[in-house]
Design goal:
The complex is a heterodimer. By secondary structure, chain A is mainly alpha-helical. Chain A has two domains: about 120 residues, Up-down Bundle (Four Helix Bundle (Hemerythrin (Met), subunit A)); about 40 residues. Chain A has six helices and no strands. The termini of chain A are far apart. Chain B is built from 13 helices and four strands. In chain B, the strands form two sheets. A two-stranded antiparallel ribbon of chain B has the order 1-2. In chain B, strands 3-4 form a two-stranded antiparallel ribbon. The chains are: A mainly alpha, B mainly alpha. At the A-B interface, helix 2 and helix 3 of A face helix 4 and helix 5 of B.
Chain lengths: ~170, ~400
């Protein structure tokens, strides 16, 4: 059952990912990205990381993508024009891409030790408590530093936006 | 996964679906009636006694109408949007607990089940996640309609949702901190019992008066999240025709309509579960069992009085029926108290849950009949300069109380 679900949602994630690149209209691409994120959330759920799945939906599929769509709607961005590609690029691109994907798959497969593979439902620490306690004890410093980094980024964005208004 | 479990789940699913759909249809009738009486009108009155069959007539009208697809719309997104809106609105109800565990003594097969579809360890976060994604229905409908009013409606909706999600999440954090859990079932169980023997231990009355502030922040934010007056700018009819659903007709319009009422119902249920103790009664046990019969007897007496002093000729025939129904319900509860304990085991929690939820829904409608609409800049300023700091202060104060006085 888990394997079937994994295959279905991995396929959805892949198709949405390809669609994201292929589509010319920004809204269609953004919708595909939401599809990728939702499918990834289901994969997290299959692994037993329920809190992570919900956080993925709230933060990425919810807040960030709503902002993306908001900006696309506000700017009323139209469809991209496809530039002419040379015949040579088209011909050489497909085999090169296949080779590239093959190399990546091989490297990943070679790097991962067999004993550390994950399996469905085998990850017990997916609840909010299992994530919250390490976050505020073992990983407190990285967590706080990341928060400060994000805060600085927000301030930077505001400063840049202000300059343009004045 | 044995056969009993599957059958019980299917029965619960069927009952929940039926009740949910009926409630959604009649919520609209209730809203029209309440608004009408606030404005001194009779409201829907023609179809059936006191307009009781009006929802049915509306449904038939909406189904049989032609579904128009305007030219130059983005067809895929245009058709996806109402589907998204209504699906995401309906999903939430499956994690709501309506009552405690009940034991049905079927001879040979004693069944014990919770009055809830399923309990997630992250139930509250699940509802938040669905709510966060739910905005796409409205935003995409506005964009795909290829209409400037729709587009503005969709834009307003997404900006408003993002802004009010923050104070809402901060207000939700307070009861979660007090109960130390994310599951709705455990949240309600943590709210059982009484202070000094008579004040219920609902989150609303804990850490007085902090939780009352959190409750008010949550309530205001949920008004904004459900796009209701005074925050119904996405469909402000005197500026935007009908906002995001201007171009929708027939069943796709009905989907948005249903999604709105379902979101309202969900918000009322979540408020009940988080702050008002779910199915926990208002009074300690020996008295609380008599509240339901007394309430129904009183309602029956009022109906009888209305039948004896009819304001309209029809009332002489309709109100005795209402009175008989009320007395029947009172008799049912009394029978449950003295003869069949199984009836009360199911009906009592449902009565308290329903009473709280419908009380909140009445507040929703009452506010619609009373308040004017915000202007857009007022809405944003209210969210970021008042609601957000207030939510932050309440959350931090609650966290401090929980940290210093661990329970």
């Amino acid at each position: 059952m888990d394997t079937v679900l994994f295959l279905v949602f991995a396929l959805i994630a892949l198709l949405c990912g390809i669609n994201l690149v292929v589509q010319t209209h920004p809204i269609s691409s953004a919708l595909s990205l939401i599809g990728v994120m939702a499918a990834l959330a289901v994969l997290y759920l299959l692994l037993g990381a329920e809190f992570l799945a919900a956080a993925q939906m709230i933060v990425y599929a919810g807040a960030i993508m709503v902002l993306f769509i908001f900006v696309i709607m506000l700017l009323n961005a139209g469809a991209e024009r496809v530039t002419k590609t040379r015949q040579l690029v088209k011909l050489a691109g497909v085999p090169l891409m296949a080779v590239f994907l093959g190399i990546i798959a091989f490297i990943i497969q070679a790097l991962l030790p067999k004993s550390q593979l994950v399996w469905f439902g085998g990850f017990p620490g997916g609840g909010p408590r299992d994530i919250g306690i390490p976050l505020f004890t073992n990983y407190l410093l990285p967590f706080e530093v990341t928060s400060v980094l994000i805060l600085i980024a927000i301030l930077g964005a505001i400063v840049l936006a202000r300059k343009e208004i004045d | 996964m044995d056969l009993t479990y599957i059958i019980v789940t299917l029965v619960k699913l069927a009952v929940l679906f039926g009740v949910l759909m009926t409630t959604l249809a009649y919520l609209q009738w209730i809203e029209r009636k309440v608004i009408a009486h606030i404005q001194l009108r009779p409201g829907p009155y023609r179809v059936g006694p006191h307009g009781l069959l009006q929802p049915l007539a509306d449904v038939i009208k909406l189904i049989t109408k032609e579904g128009m697809i305007p030219s130059h719309v983005n067809k895929f997104v245009y058709l996806l949007a109402p589907f998204l809106a209504v699906t995401l609105a309906l999903v939430n109800i499956c994690v709501m607990p309506f009552g405690p565990e009940i034991k049905v003594p079927i001879p040979g097969h004693p069944v014990s089940t919770w009055l809830q579809m399923t309990d997630l360890r992250i139930g509250v976060i699940f509802v938040l996640a669905i709510g966060a994604v739910g905005v796409y229905g409205v935003a995409l409908a506005g964009w795909s309609s290829n209409n400037k009013y729709s587009l503005i409606g969709g834009l307003r909706s997404s900006a408003q949702m993002i802004s009010y999600e923050l104070p809402m999440a901060l207000a939700i954090a307070c009861p979660l901190l007090l109960a130390n859990t994310l599951s709705f079932r455990e949240l309600v169980l943590a709210q059982g019992g009484y202070f000094f023997g008579f004040i219920p231990r609902w989150n609303l009355f804990q850490v007085f008066p902090l939780q009352i502030v959190a409750f008010i922040v949550f309530l205001i934010a949920s008004f904004a999240e459900t796009n209701r007056i005074p925050f119904d700018l996405p469909e402000a009819e005197n500026e935007l025709v009908a906002g995001f659903h201007t171009e929708y007709s027939s069943m796709s319009f009905a989907s948005f309509f249903m999604a709105e009422y379902c979101n309202m119902l969900t918000a009322a249920c979540v408020t009940t579960l988080l702050f008002l103790g779910g199915w926990q009664p208002l009074f300690p046990a020996p008295w609380s069992d008599y509240v339901a019969p007394v309430v129904f007897v009183l309602a029956g007496l009022v109906s009888l009085w209305a039948a004896l002093n009819p304001a309209r000729p029809k009332d002489r025939f309709t109100f005795p029926v209402v009175a008989a129904a009320c007395f029947g319900l009172a008799a049912l509860f009394l029978a449950g108290e003295f003869v069949f304990p199984i009836v009360n085991q199911i009906a009592m929690p449902l009565f308290w849950f329903g009473a709280k939820t419908f009380g909140l829904l009445f507040v929703w409608i009452w506010v619609r009949g009373t308040l004017p609409r915000f202007r857009y800049d007022q809405l944003m300023r209210f969210a970021w300069t008042f609601m957000f700091p207030l939510g932050m202060v309440v959350m931090l104060a609650t966290a401090a109380v929980v940290a210093w006085f661990p329970r």
